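Hey, I'm writing a tutorial for new members on how sequence and structure tokens pair up, and I'd like a real worked example in the thread rather than a made-up one. If someone can provide the structure for the chain below, I'll link this post from the tutorial.
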Amino acid sequence: MQRLAQKLRRAGTRIGLVPTMGYLHAGHLSLAREARRRVGKSGVVVVSIYVNPTQFAPTEDLDKYPRDLQRDLRMCRAEGVDVVFTPSDAEMYPARAKTQGQRGLAARAASGHLRSTGFSTYVVEENLGRVMEGAARPAHFRGVTTVVAKLFNLVLPDVSVFGQKDFQQAAIIQRMALDLNFPVHIIVAPTHREKDGLAMSSRNKYLDAEQRAQAVILFHALRAAQAAVAKKPVPAARLKKDLKEFMTAAPLARLDYVEFFDPATLQPISMVTRGTNMALAVFLGKTRLIDNVRL
């Protein structure tokens, strides 16, 4: 991959990267189309497919995360993607113990004990990753920034496209690219949604019929918050309380967090107004879904 990227860059060919964990859906394909728009017909669009173990905690769904590479390849071909990069764990985290499976790698990554396997260098963003998803999933963003930094070094993209559904992740990647002088332009593309408003996610596959029907409560909560602040500011504490009550309309849904924050710093704010950003995470059974919106 790196040799190909170097050859393309020497020839003056622009490269667009879409990092994914596979099990692609229409939202991923919209990112590939945005990458194509940015690099042009003469450019090269690369989609990476890699379920990165270092961003999963030992209790999370690494082993069960949906995978179907042949399906993904068919979708990429139909979309006109030029290159699909599918590295292995051994390639992305070299010299790890061969006797350890993915679960062991994720456990050691979460606890900071990958040193014994021969891999011990991480990229850590210090500020934006402390709240929301970072607070709920410690060490998650360390895995994200590390693997994306590696992808940037391997694919050498001019542009890389991320989805707005993972707003905090995109903000952290933008900060990493700026702080570490990666010569790549980060594009954040709009969230792709189902007809009923549910944000598209590979994890939606986990939902049974009843959970799927109630999962739309995430989108409805975002709309309710937008309506609440349309005419005047509302204290964040009061709006959080109102939204927790609102969520009871979906008895299978369990709210993990709801936050109102400054989009530049990601720090919580006390008074919610039009233009404030909102994010929430909700469990439906064992499936955890996230969403966000600018109110």
